[in-house]
Specification:
This protein has about 100 residues and is an alpha+beta fold. The protein has 3 helices and 4 strands. Helices cover about 40% and strands about 10% of the residues. The strands form 2 sheets. The chain has a two-stranded antiparallel sheet with strand order 1-2. It has a two-stranded antiparallel sheet with strand order 3-4. β3 and β4 form a beta hairpin. The longest helix has 19 residues, at about 15-30. The protein starts with a strand and ends in a 13-residue tail after the last helix.
């Protein structure tokens, strides 16, 4: 299947989205208060550099489409987005780790 897939976000559910954004704001506040100012300034500078370089302009937004792709699952087998979508809705979760 070579069909592009619409990205669905919490904006489709305004009440849940509002609560989620409040929770994220609280989390960011609590997270930042545990770090020293120099570290936070370096982090803010790095984010600003990424913005200036245009990396934030490349992100997917509500209503954007993603091309079909295949990734390795945590269990070791390959997963193709279009194949999974024939069976069930998909939630993509990106994480950084080892």
């Amino acid at each position: 299947m070579n069909k592009e897939t619409e990205i669905v976000t919490m904006k489709a559910y305004p009440e849940i989205y509002k609560t989620l954004m409040a929770d994220i704001g609280k989390y960011k506040y609590l997270l930042r208060k545990n770090y020293n100012q120099k570290f936070l300034q370096n982090l803010d500078n790095a984010i600003e550099d990424l913005k200036k370089a245009g990396y934030f302009d490349q992100r997917l937004r509500t209503g954007d489409y993603t091309p079909d792709f295949t990734l390795n699952a945590c269990e070791g087998h390959s997963v193709c987005l279009s194949e999974v979508l024939t069976k069930t809705p998909v939630v993509l979760s990106f994480f950084r780790g080892r």
